[in-house]
Amino acid sequence: MNGRHFKGTTQVTKIIFRAQRIKICAWILGIVLVTLAVAYSYPNVYQDDVSKKGFAITMQNPAMVAMLGPGYDEADYFVTVGTQFAHEMLLFTIIAVAVMSILLVGSSTRTDEETGRIEVVRSLPVGRLSYLAASLIVVAIANFLITLFCSIGLYLLNIDGITLQSALLYGGILGVGGLFFGIITALFAQVSPTSRGTTGLSFGVLVVAYLVRAFGDVTSETIAFASPLGWLVRTDVFINNNWWPILLTTLFSVIISFFAFYLNSIRDIDAGFLPSMKGKTHASKFLMTVFGLAFRLQKVKMLSWGVGIFALSASFGAVLGDLETYFSEMEFLQLFFNEQSKVSMTDNFISLLMAIMSLIVAIPVTMTILKLKSEETHNRTENFFSRVISRNHVLSSYTLLAVLESIYLQFLLAIGLWVASSVSLQVAMKSSFIYLPALWLMISLSVMLYGAVPKIMNLIWIYVAFCFIVIYLSEMLNFPLWLRNVSAFESIPNLPAAGMSWSAIIVEFILTIAFSLIGFVSYNRRDLKG
């Protein structure tokens, strides 16, 4: 590798940034606004010492440590509200920035290679490594802007205990964490021969990093250090402000990026270092159907998400026993929660876990409908319509696949919790399957957007993000009831912590049917895009 391999990087950077500018702005705006809004609300959440002590002890229980990472010393929660904010928000925000980086790099490397954009750019006087370098520069700029805006915003909020140094450290954690996973994606873009494989492997690393950190945080800190997320949650931000995790993550990012550039320099375009699996010579009768082909194209994704959902559910199920033991040994917590609620801590945790995990399941089932949009954009649906196949047949096949996928993933979610904890199978199934109406409503929204206005179909991800904010932060941000009810997941009964209510379920079924009908009718009336 030498200078001529990077010739034209500046021009290519401008091309990629122009193509990704809307996505980048949307991600930055969403992450920064949520971060600052939550930070602004924290001083009004825990105002007295009793609530702070309850928060501190609650966050030290094994289940919350596994979900959110290791906390601070109990005394630190009384020093500054920043500790409470960081403990609840830091890890999930790192993951959000990592997802942004994975999608941006995956789109500007392997996806652009599959669609022929890189080949067109390479026909110009540019270096062999210029496109990869430009992709990493773009994602680095996006992460830097998140670092800058979050740091300045946190400092300007003038919250007691949040200094300029600690605000810069918090923002730096987000930026470095996002860049690390962006570089991981650049590496897999050289290894995998497909864009789906690239993003799949990258998200796999993110999930494994989370699970390793969760297991290590609960059992052994040495194990947690095997995960980059385990490094970044140990900065002790707003208290001791340790910068070594950022330096360590940066060092590994540089090493991995060199490896990615080397692999890119020795491989052919459209090739990968992982061999492509050879298919059968003749297709089966099932594969020759619309549903069979859709299933075949989504099979690897469904398997990967199934493994991930089961592993996450089982990991949290494994610490439920420790949670109940921890609660029984803490007299203060018993008094505190008895005043707040008659529901056990375990039931509350299961309800929160199932809500968050079900919202995660909404991602792959929504991607199934988005896959049909991609097929149409690339003119591949014309292969269906050149035969005696109706539009309703095509759309209903993908919709049915998404519905079956939601049932399959919710089943694995329940089984994962059941096999790893003392929760009964009946409770696990009920608390998991109760969210199926919300998932089906998400599918119907996707169908409606695809059928009526496919150009703005990606806005469904904004709604998914909104649903997560409602589940995790609505009480903290004092959302009015009408706004919370906009979320498909908010009105679902929180089993087993709450009782069963059928009214909201019936309403969501009616909305699901209505949105689906609008989608099917609109799809039959509009022109195909390509």
Automatic annotation (TrEMBL):
Q: Which UniProt keywords apply?
A: Membrane, Transmembrane, Transmembrane helix
Q: Does the keyword Transmembrane apply?
A: yes
Matching InterPro entries, A to Z?
A: ABC2_memb-like
**Where, by residue number, does the polypeptide cross the bilayer?**
24-42, 89-108, 129-156, 168-189, 201-223, 243-263, 302-321, 349-370, 395-420, 432-453, 460-482, 502-523
Q: Tell me the domain of life.
A: Bacteria
Q: What is this protein called?
A: ABC-2 type transport system permease protein
